[in-house]
Write a structure and sequence with these properties.
Elements (H helix, E strand, L loop, with lengths): L2 E5 L2 E4 L4 E8 L5 E9 L6 E7 L4 E3 L7 E6 L4 E6 L8 E9 L2 E4 L3 E6 L1
Parallel strand pairs: 2-11
Antiparallel strand pairs: 1-3, 3-8, 4-5, 4-9, 5-6, 7-8, 9-10, 9-11
């Protein structure tokens, strides 16, 4: 059974930093891509950043220059370093993993940025 377990969310003041982690377990094949999405109240879930097994990254324009995604393939873990956080970054952050043709989601972790 595949599980994605996120950690690292919390409450931070504007300008602060947080680091999210997502560890995947129960995966029998190589993970094609991993990424982070977020959903703010009343809004649809949206891309934050993704990273392929080869290290190619993609970011939403709103986080470019502030967030950095990385992964440890040996540990099936993806990280999101978030710097210079803004109140508009407040959302539930979800980890996503694509294995072969199947997509898996974590349970989400709350990030709240106070002004």
């Amino acid at each position: 059974q595949v599980q994605l377990v996120e950690s690292g969310g919390g409450l931070v003041q504007a300008g602060g930093s947080l680091r999210l982690s997502c560890a995947a377990s129960g995966i029998m094949y190589s993970i094609n891509s991993m990424g982070w999405y977020r959903q703010a109240p009343g809004k649809q879930r949206a891309l934050v950043a993704t990273i392929t097994s080869g290290g190619n990254t993609n970011y939403a324009d709103s986080v470019k220059g502030r967030f950095t995604i990385s992964r440890d393939n040996a540990k099936n873990t993806v990280y999101l370093q978030m710097n210079n956080l803004k109140p508009e970054d407040t959302a539930v952050y979800y980890c996503k993993s694509v294995v072969v043709l199947t997509t898996y989601w974590g349970q989400g972790t709350q990030v709240t940025v106070s002004s």
